[in-house]
Input
Amino acid sequence: MSLIVQKYGGTSMGSVERIQNVARRVAKWHAAGHQVVVVPSAMSGETNRLLGLAKEISPQPDSRELDMLASTGEQASSSLLAMALMSQGVPARSYAGWQVPVRTDSSFTKARIKSIDDARIRGDLDSGRVVIVTGFQGIDDDGNITTLGRGGSDTSAVAVAAAMGAAECLIFTDVDGVYTTDPRVVPEARRMAVISFEEMMEMASLGSKVLQIRSVEFAGKYRVPVRVLSSLTDPLIPLEEEMTSGTLITFEEDQKMEAAVVSGIAFSRDEAKVTLLAVPDTPGVAYSILGPVAAANIDVDMILQNQSVQGTTDFSFTVNRNDFARTLDLLNNQIGPAVGAGQIVSDDKVCKVSIVGIGMRSHVGVASLMFRTLSEEGINIQMISTSEIKTSVIINDKYMELAVRALHKAFGLDTESGQAANP
Ligand code: ADP
Ligand code: ASP
Ligand code: MG
Output
């Protein structure tokens, strides 16, 4: 008998029939003698619907109230799942984040989990119940409901698994694992049976929405075995088959296929670029620009400063598209005048495309194949950033899918033999 945490995403919870199927799958694990904690997302489309209502009321709604609103989606799906389980004869009880409690900081709409009290959950498990904990939400020290950022139910699930020392955290979703890239963009993408923790971190942080980045961080910090698998298979497939399906995030690097240098392509459309032209090239300028941006709680991603010509230089950086309006406002009204920038230009029609692979550490020529491939497609690279195991470029977002498909092919990811031979 093991303690298993199972997370079901929005599509998996998307209708009454799907919720009943989730209940059948959970009932199968329960009947096999496992203790099961389920973490559901809101039914698909529900979080967007709620946030859309808020936007109709106000262009910039209050973030505390946004969390009050958005958290209701998970409360509804959790109670429906509890009812579905009970109607199938399985004792079950659902809890909202505040009832557990899942304690977070007070950063509304992007709160971080600080601790989870598992006493109530354990009590129910020990009395034979399936426990359902709402994904995506928690409570801060002042008793306010918080949410964990889009895709945050993944993080709720891994955090519950970490807090309870679960044997495995199963992330059930609408694809049957982690692919070489998003299979919706490249139909030839292939599922990986295992992916290293480091590669999964990069893929998630560079935009692969299959897992929220913080869930991967939690998995790494607490060594939680995480498996991504499909919720759309027959719910009654044998447990042994289910337990070896999908993609396992592995902490053992040597389990990785040896030869593949690039193992995945990630992309993100959530990007925006701003440039201050002709700022003085003097000590302290980067700080004068980025200090107020950080103080406004805006995350900066890529930064590019050119060599100075006649004592001035151009300074560009990228931010999440959600923060674009606020960033521009800050630059135009505060930072630009303060540093004496010549002009401020901006572009929110950019995207980031990245190649990822732990094999890149020991191979040269990987980035140059990326640049050649993009040039052959006539795609202009606006910014580049590299780390040990990834190279990212910023390009015009109308070329995003073309770039992803071309790179997927160029690195041989369409076939197993092609991938093994990539440079
Ligand atoms: P859920 O609602 O279950 O959390 P998400 O939509 O958040 O599901 O994540 C699953 C989706 O992630 C898939 O439908 C797929 O389009 C997308 N995705 C992006 N990159 C990848 C990848 N590398 N492998 C698999 N899926 C990916
Ligand atoms: N329902 C939330 C969202 O749509 C959380 C999640 O699905 O993980 O972002
Ligand atoms: Mg998700």
About this structure: Residues 9, 151, 154, 209 surround magnesium ion (ligand 3) (CB under 6 Å). The domain at 264-410 is CATH 3.30.2130.10 (VC0802-like). The longest strand covers residues 264-280.
